[in-house]
Design brief:
- About 30% of the residues lie in helices and about 25% in strands.
- It is an alpha/beta fold.
- The strands form 2 sheets. The chain has an 8-stranded mixed beta sheet with strand order 1-10-9-8-7-4-5-6. Strands 2-3-11 form a 3-stranded mixed beta sheet, with no helix packed on it.
- The longest helix is centred in the middle third of the chain and has 20 residues.
- The protein is globular, with a radius of gyration of 16 Å.
- The C terminus is likely disordered.
Length: about 240
């Protein structure tokens, strides 16, 4: 099992194109909402995954990181799209290749802002190159920003966020990230040490937190840069 995938997934390979891959995701009910489907179609995974971009499996992208399986991208978009509007702020923790950050940027309007953070400088530099291949306007317009930072701390400068995505597992729900979530906002995050759950976290207008388990998953830990670079592969997006 690769990193950043369902514990038991309906993987398949050789989709051949982004459109065929998205049709596979739609047919298997990983994604059903029109806006989420449009975002997946608008950002070609081949610009972000160096090998086998259309396989529904995680792919290694270097520096101890992988780009997660497309079905996990689809699940994240499916459950975050409804809280993302024209002026939304979105935080992508562990932005890795930049793929999911670019999809999020397609879903916010000109007044919106997507912040992708990763603690590996080389990955951030590569992600900027990846986005520029076909979606340079997302960067030049200021709609998408990709920063080198410790994702465990979030990015307070652009908080609060209507949507937060976390691409590696935390043993417990991180209070720091919950605090950066806007009332009415939503976060998706893998939580747990071994038996992990991909949780949807909704912050109610009064600040109460509601949890929902979306799927059983297998992610590596949200960890320090030194541990990742020493071989604890991280599942980043």
């Amino acid at each position: 099992m690769g990193n950043g995938a369902l514990s038991s997934s309906r993987n398949s390979s050789n989709r051949g194109s982004q459109r065929k891959l998205v049709e596979h995701l739609r047919r298997n009910n990983f994604v059903t909402k029109d806006r989420a489907i449009s975002a997946l179609l608008a950002v070609d995974r081949a610009d972000f995954a160096p090998t086998h971009p259309y396989d529904d499996t995680p792919q290694y992208i270097g520096y101890g990181a992988t780009i997660s399986a497309p079905h996990m991208h689809a699940i994240a978009l499916e459950h975050l799209v409804d809280v993302m509007g024209d002026a939304s702020h979105v935080l992508d923790i562990g932005s890795g290749s930049g793929y999911l950050s670019a999809c999020f940027a397609k879903l916010v309007g000109p007044r919106g802002k997507v912040i992708g953070v990763d603690h590996i400088e080389e990955l951030v530099n590569t992600s900027i190159v990846n986005v520029r291949k076909q979606n340079a306007d997302l960067l030049s317009s200021g709609r998408l920003h990709l920063f080198v930072a410790d994702g465990r701390l979030g990015w307070p400068a652009a908080a609060p966020y209507q949507a937060i995505h976390v691409g590696a597992a935390s043993e417990e729900l991180p209070r720091t990230l919950v605090d950066q979530l806007a009332p009415g906002g939503r976060m998706v995050i893998p939580v747990g040490a071994y038996n992990q759950q991909f949780l949807q976290i909704d912050k109610m207008p009064n600040g109460d937190i509601v949890r929902r388990n979306l799927a059983d998953v297998k992610y590596v830990p949200l960890t320090a840069k030194s541990l990742q670079m020493n071989g604890e592969t991280a599942s980043m997006h």
